[in-house]
Amino acid sequence: MTNRTLCLLVFCSGFLALQGCLSSSTGFESIRIFLDSNADAIVLEGEAGSKVLVSPSLQGRIMTAKVGSVESTGLVPQKTISEGEAHEHFNNFGGLDRFWIGPEAGQYGVYFPKGAKELTRDNWQVPASFDKGAFEVMEKTEQRILLRKKIDVTNLLGVEFETMVTREIGLIPSASLGAELGIELPAGVSYIGCYSDNQLTNTGSDWDPKSGLIGIWILGMINASDEAVVIAPFKTLAGDGKSPYNDNYFGKVDEDRLKIIDNAVIFRGDARKVGKFGLSQRRTTGLAGSFDFDKNLLTVAKFSVPETMERYGNSSWEVNQEAPYAGDVFQSYNNGNNDKPTEVAADAFFELESASPVRVLKKGESISHRHATFHFQGSREELEKLAGQLLGVSLEKIEDAMWPAGPDGPRPAGS
Description:
Blueprint: H1 3-14, H2 19-22, H3 28-38, E1 42-45, E2 51-55, E3 61-66, H4 78-83, E4 98-102, H5 128-131, E5 136-140, E6 144-154, E7 160-171, H6 177-181, E8 190-202, E9 215-223, E10 228-233, E11 258-261, E12 264-268, E13 275-279, E14 287-292, E15 297-303, E16 330-334, E17 349-355, E18 366-377, H7 380-391, H8 395-402
Antiparallel strand pairs: 1-2, 2-3, 4-9, 5-6, 6-7, 7-8, 8-18, 9-17, 10-12, 10-14, 11-12, 13-16, 14-15, 15-18, 16-17
């Protein structure tokens, strides 16, 4: 290392708020220093050097995690964060686990102005009550943080909802993998697990399904890669000839980007073309994930799914939905640059998302939703076994389906 390079690294570490250093600060410690300077940062120490980073100031997000040789699994858009809460439609501060409220769209959606006649990117707006402002830290230990924030929203019909939200964020030790996922951590595999346990309490008037209901929506932004694939196992339903997934969000997803392998939906996580799909309560297994073939990183998301059938808010972008309570439990979104589909989006991420039901809550009643994220990084052989155990898929089959030219063949851009 030259003296000039050393000086540059020291300069960037000391002045991470400067835009020129933002894009180069991808290590976990660099991200922590940056967030300490521009927001706040709480580090939860896992096993064997694995870590999770939480920012109460950035709306209570779990920002990212370090596991094995992967320094940061979650998107941390430093330029956007350094600009503050000044963005017109959405302060996209990234994060491996962020709290939102759903549904997004339809007559009961809360992301469009009252009385909107059409739903477009121009009038889409994340509600300020959870797009801005910090979550209050109520308790903090070495393994757990409890956060709280008052959040109010208004739906397309003009109906107001007053709520108090709490988020418990914590680590999941490897000793709990048996209870959580029914597995033991293989020797030689690096691991980090974290969760958010979210509670939304109605602090206003009683809710009425005829005028809209709301629920919890957790979204995790994971760093995209040309070799990343989302994996969503689904239940087969005897006699049901319908597609197991729903892609009625931003237009039908291209066949080379979304496929079915055995009993799983696979979907490109390359940040080259906008697309989204979801699984209903009848179809989801309560587990989904992704695999990055370049990093040998297996991610698994586990989320709450009630045993009895319930209402779920529908987030398809229609003003008047025929089935406003037939929404999806699991969703995955891939960011992209539709104007230049051969280029990666400036914010290069895909999402693993889960939602709670929407319920008729009287004043003082609550609904809860838990979303857990598990990262495993290690040899392809061990991760192949884990993917089969947890997601019921073969990584080799996925690779053959997504890249038929073979592992050394070209990775197609956003077609």
